[in-house]
Amino acid sequence: MLLYMSNIRQEKPSTPLHSVSVAGVVVREDGRVLTIRRADNGTWEPPGGVLELTEAPEDGVRREVYEETGIKVQVDRLTGVYKNTSRGIVALVFRCRAEGGHEKLSDEAVAVEWLTLDEVTNRMAEVYAVRVTDALLDGPPHVRAHDGRKLARDA
User: Fold this and answer.
1) Which of 44, 61, 82, 129 is the 20 to 30 Å CA partner of 150?
2) Are 48 and 64 in contact (CB under 8 A)?
3) Contact present, 42 and 81 (Cβ < 8 Å)
């Protein structure tokens, strides 16, 4: 058994696999933010999803926001990169503004609402609320890690 275990340790480690997702923090002129309540788990989040292989990130944001909410958006800028360390998901979050369309429910969203910042922090888990608050700030994109529930804190 020891010989077997030592042989395993000498093998080359596997390459980690990550999934890339995109999300749009769509801000209205009155400061309210477009949010969805997910059909699969009931959580409130900015609209978004998995980036397709041949898709540019900005195109993915436009597609995901429209599919989930019925709102067409203009992508303004990247505001954050968030890594879920427990699931290997890297999320690119973009600040956007609405260009048209009408709110509608979808297979992925059982509710679509424009929330105030206070409502965002009260309804969303910390790992999603921070994406909204980061998107509302000026400056370079934030880079953060989390375990799916809590942000990693600097030591």
Assistant:
1) 61
2) yes
3) no
